Amino acid sequence: MKTVTPEAQKFLNAEHLMLIDGKQVEGEKGRLVDLENPADGSVIAQAWRGAAHHADRAVEAARRAFNDKRWRGKTPAERERVLLRIAELIDEHTEALADLEVLNGGKLFTGAFRGEVPMAARTFRYYAGWCTKLEGEVFHPSIPGLDFHAYTIHEPVGVVAQIIPWNGPLVMAAWKLAPALAAGCSVVLKPAEQTPLSALYLGRLMQEAGVPDGVVNIVTGSGSEIGGTLAAHGDVNKVAFTGSTETGRKLMDAARGNLKRLSLELGGKSPAILFEDCDLEAAIEGAAMGIFGGAGQVCVAGSRIYAHYSIYDEVVEGVAEVARRLKVGPGLDPDSEMGPLISDGHRQSVHGHVTRAVDEGVDLICGGDMLDGPGYFYPPTVLAKPRPDSAIMTEEVFGPVVTVTPFQSTAEVVSAANDSIYGLAGSVWTRDLSLAHKVVRDINSGIIWINCHGIPDLALRVGGMKQSGWGRELGPEGLMLYTETKSIMAKL
Ligand code: NAP
Ligand code: MG
Known about the structure:
The chain has 16 helices and 22 strands. The chain is α/β, with parallel strands linked by helices. Strand 18, helix 15 and strand 19 form a beta-alpha-beta unit. Helix 3 crosses helix 7. The model has no long low-confidence stretch (mean pLDDT 98).
């Protein structure tokens, strides 16, 4: 087992205070929540369950910071320098942050250390570069007989509430905070109640990097109380949310009062389509890891595999072989290849989906049994020949559970892939590039990979069609989510 860094251990042992107006703030007596290590169910720390008035105070602080321009009034190069410094500090604390992602978020250490923490640092670097490039346009209006000069500017949208889920605590925080800060907004971040630690740690690093007081506030607590207060708040200009489609709908209702801007990264039920001519070995491995990676607790997970009839049996067997081979275990064990689910409740929910599917007659190829021992482990599970309208084909499981369905024609598989309320992601596996590019045009989803699945990049937009959400994060569009365009016209 890898040992936890003294730095992470010291942080775990300390109090986990909220960050409001640049100050460390505790909650009210008795309102502490136990934080669990999903790999063994032990309590690793406690965090405050903030109350509505903490959310209100954070919004007030963010508003003051926005109005007096202590951040948005800085030159773009100054903002860039602070964001670059945040990235450097994340790099300097990579191991401790990775430990926190493992202990609180149930991640694999290697993945967090090599993947997620560096990705968080890169996010700040990427958006640091945009600070000096957020330019408007100049144009010449066509009004006969008169001369005008017109242009646009992109202003920060204002006070932003950012509400994030537990499945990528640090990366989700970085994907939200970096573009908002680059645009000049002030922020109130609400981490998932189960996984606030790395965001609170990041909050300290941001202060150290020179983010002024009140510009980034972090309020911990429950979704209904803190999230609900922020979403309904009359002085919040925008909510940026990542989480379930169900919560996304509640946010739409809450946001109606002041018509605040809303960007929503929601659930998915993404297809991975394996054509007859694909590189079978690579496709099987890639499609399997497209669902079992992160124990399936990944929004873009390829939870519906479609395989051409001619290769169907090989695909089912191949994916099951990967499932049986993967070593499920705690993230601190360097041999583990798949970690636990986030909580016992979530494991019950995943298992409920599987049991129901089996009751409804799907073929259980492997997995499907809760694993013994402490920790919330669930085996990679492969289900074959599900009915297209069954719950396992329509509902998001958010666990290491995949269905494999045969298809005959391209038209048939495109229609099956699109037969979902979701439209987040997908992948197409073939050696025929024309086929690949034609099929991706016909799939209704925000991201599609060809001959790979789930590979992120900061320039690759993330977001969904249909009930997978509104808006796109990352890339320049991710920055524009935090701006308002202003048009200016001058008569010469
Ligand atoms: P969730 O229940 O919707 O929670 C997400 C966040 O919303 C948490 O911080 C939660 O707080 C908060 N929340 C809950 N109820 C709220 C309310 N009424 N008002 C305001 N905020 C509220 O989602 P989850 O189960 O934690 O996360 C998994 C989901 O996220 C999956 O559906 C997955 O597909 C989606 N996801 C999407 C993307 C994407 O980019 N599209 C990325 C990752 C995950 P508490 O934790 O305190 O309840
Ligand atoms: Mg939840």
